Amino acid sequence: MPSDLNQKIYVAGHRGMVGSAIVRNLQAKGYTNTVTRTHAQMDLTDQAAVKAFFEQEKPDQVYLAAAKVGGIYANNTFPAEFIYDNLMVQNNVIHQAFLNGVKKLLFLGSSCIYPRQAPQPMSEDALLTGKLEPTNEPYAIAKIAGIKMCESYNRQYGQSHGVDYRSVMPTNLYGPGDNYHPENSHVIPALIRRFHEAKVSNAPEVVIWGTGTPKREFLYVDDMAAASIFVMQLDKTAYDAQTEPMQSHINVGFGSDVTIAELAASVAKATGYEGKISFDTSKPDGAPRKWMDSGRLNHLGWGPKVQLQQGLKVAYEEFLQEGVRS
């Protein structure tokens, strides 16, 4: 644990699910000088605004959790915005961090950086070994560029300026701050809403798309935040020993996955729905499996604490307070 809990830490994207969890975890660890800006206060795609912020605030560390995100529909409909906005945010924040003397920066990526046919579990070495999933390729390309930007600054300025920029690649996340919108939410918040509404309406059955056999990995967002802080605080020698030369990224996963059928049963239990769960096998399944190899991070001493059923319970409680209104 660093001795200076007063160091100034800028969390970009603090209103998002991951960014808000990072702020919560930093505060829980006793950090007292967290700096944030809303989108209305600073547009991260605006180079001049980001430059002015860094010159004024001079943070000691940066967590770059800000990103334009969305589901398949959004990625397919607005590919130009997804690649432009994310590239601009990354370029502005990482470069201004360097220009203003920030030695430690953590960039948050996504498991979609890996090829669609990557061997399971997906290891860090799979990056750039095959074709990406076409539906979110612009977003993935932007995230890959962010990883390579961190690596490039380390390579050029690590020795001379002490730059140490790292990247974490999370698996599917859920928990407080999630998006429960009925049309563009991810699988867990979508299932929470569906099972809740079925319970309220006494629906006898909830039908899930596909066969229920594909497997997915899920990580509670506060575990992700704890992992981010853990990676940021790691001794450089220990971190470098678990990554490739000049490589900045490391996977963060739960370590095991569940079938969609198992997930649906767990969400039904968390929401108290007692009706029938069936599967429409005429609908597509998607990829049979998406599972991250988190062995390197586990070897460094980090592991998740929140089990799926426990996390789903907390997520549903938050949905009852917030999501049901959206």
TrEMBL record:
The alphabetical list of record keywords is: Isomerase, Multifunctional enzyme, NADP, Oxidoreductase
Q: Which residues form the active site?
A: 139
Site-annotated residues for Important for catalytic activity: 110, 112
What biological-process terms (Gene Ontology) are attached? 'de novo' GDP-L-fucose biosynthetic process
Q: Do you know which CDD domains this protein is assigned to? A: GDP_FS_SDR_e
GO MF annotation: an example: isomerase activity
Binding residues annotated for substrate, in chain numbering: 194, 209, 216, 285
Task: Indicate which residues the UniProt annotation says bind NADP(+).
Answer: 13-19, 108-111, 143, 170-173, 186
Q: Ranges for the NAD-dependent epimerase/dehydratase domain?
A: 9-236
Q: What is its EC number?
A: 1.1.1.271
According to UniProt, this protein's pathway is:
Nucleotide-sugar biosynthesis; GDP-L-fucose biosynthesis via de novo pathway; GDP-L-fucose from GDP-alpha-D-mannose: step 2/2
Family the UniProt entry places it in: Belongs to the NAD(P)-dependent epimerase/dehydratase family. Fucose synthase subfamily.
**Could you tell me what this protein does?**
Catalyzes the two-step NADP-dependent conversion of GDP-4-dehydro-6-deoxy-D-mannose to GDP-fucose, involving an epimerase and a reductase reaction.
Q: What is the official name of this protein in its record?
A: GDP-L-fucose synthase
Q: Give the species this sequence originates from.
A: Polynucleobacter campilacus
